């Protein structure tokens, strides 16, 4: 019911697929790449409140009887997605209960992740938050290498670039990652989970329970 209405499209770094307070016209089901939900902070800064990749979709507000997003959703890693008009998606949701249940479960899993991000932002040290973010991204890519600059990570975490540089050095010093210019290589995933100190794990277990989407 959905596939005939879908079109595979490329996703490029920086592409905005949701704009706050604007009507949702299209929904993207990511097949590769990563998209981040960004909240605006004072003085023009942004902070990531959630992310998704091939485990999720944009437009989750539609499943909660809202046609607008509260956040700006931006592609953070090149990839591809199935794109569908919001009206066609809603027609399918109304017509087939199994589609509605599945997509609502994905939306629920994302909302739990957003809550976990809020807790981490408020109570975890920067290096712990960075370890969690690396794990979240690692879950959604193939291989252990990811292309992210220090500036990019600082924007996601809502901190200064210098703070991210120090945090990356801490993770490298523990042998958890290798950080090169515009690249992070995961060396010790279990060690990253330990450093994340509980900020990673609960939301991911709930995602598996709700959707059946398996992590690494």
From TrEMBL:
<keyword id="KW-0805">Transcription regulation</keyword>
<dbReference type="InterPro" id="IPR012318">
    <property type="entry name" value="HTH_CRP"/>
</dbReference>
<dbReference type="InterPro" id="IPR050397">
    <property type="entry name" value="Env_Response_Regulators"/>
</dbReference>
<dbReference type="InterPro" id="IPR014710">
    <property type="entry name" value="RmlC-like_jellyroll"/>
</dbReference>
<dbReference type="Pfam" id="PF13545">
    <property type="entry name" value="HTH_Crp_2"/>
</dbReference>
<dbReference type="GO" id="GO:0003700">
    <property type="term" value="F:DNA-binding transcription factor activity"/>
</dbReference>
<keyword id="KW-0804">Transcription</keyword>
<dbReference type="GO" id="GO:0003677">
    <property type="term" value="F:DNA binding"/>
</dbReference>
<dbReference type="InterPro" id="IPR036388">
    <property type="entry name" value="WH-like_DNA-bd_sf"/>
</dbReference>
<dbReference type="GO" id="GO:0005829">
    <property type="term" value="C:cytosol"/>
</dbReference>
<feature type="domain" description="HTH crp-type">
    <location>
        <begin position="124"/>
        <end position="190"/>
    </location>
</feature>
<dbReference type="InterPro" id="IPR018490">
    <property type="entry name" value="cNMP-bd_dom_sf"/>
</dbReference>
<keyword id="KW-0238">DNA-binding</keyword>
<dbReference type="InterPro" id="IPR036390">
    <property type="entry name" value="WH_DNA-bd_sf"/>
</dbReference>
<protein>
    <submittedName>
        <fullName>CRP-like cAMP-binding protein</fullName>
    </submittedName>
</protein>
């Amino acid at each position: 019911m959905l596939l005939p209405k879908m079109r595979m499209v490329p996703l490029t770094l920086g592409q905005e697929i949701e704009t706050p307070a604007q009507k949702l016209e299209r929904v993207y089901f990511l097949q590769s790449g990563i998209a981040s939900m960004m909240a605006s902070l004072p003085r023009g800064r942004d902070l990531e409140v959630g992310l998704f990749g091939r485990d999720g979709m944009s437009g989750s507000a539609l499943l909660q009887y809202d046609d607008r997003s509260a956040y700006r959703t931006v592609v953070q890693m090149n990839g591809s997605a199935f794109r569908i008009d919001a009206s066609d998606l809603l027609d399918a949701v109304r017509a087939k209960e199994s589609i509605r249940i599945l997509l609502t479960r994905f939306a629920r899993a994302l909302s739990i992740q957003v809550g976990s991000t809020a807790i981490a932002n408020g109570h975890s040290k920067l290096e712990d938050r960075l370890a969690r973010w690396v794990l979240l991204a690692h879950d959604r890519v193939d291989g252990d290498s990811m292309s992210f600059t220090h500036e990019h990570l600082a924007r996601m975490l809502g901190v200064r670039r210098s703070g991210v540089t120090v945090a990356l050095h801490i993770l490298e010093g523990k042998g958890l990652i290798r950080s090169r210019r515009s690249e992070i290589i995961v060396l010790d995933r279990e060690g990253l989970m330990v450093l994340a100190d509980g900020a990673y794990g609960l939301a991911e277990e709930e995602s598996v329970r709700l959707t059946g989407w398996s992590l690494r």
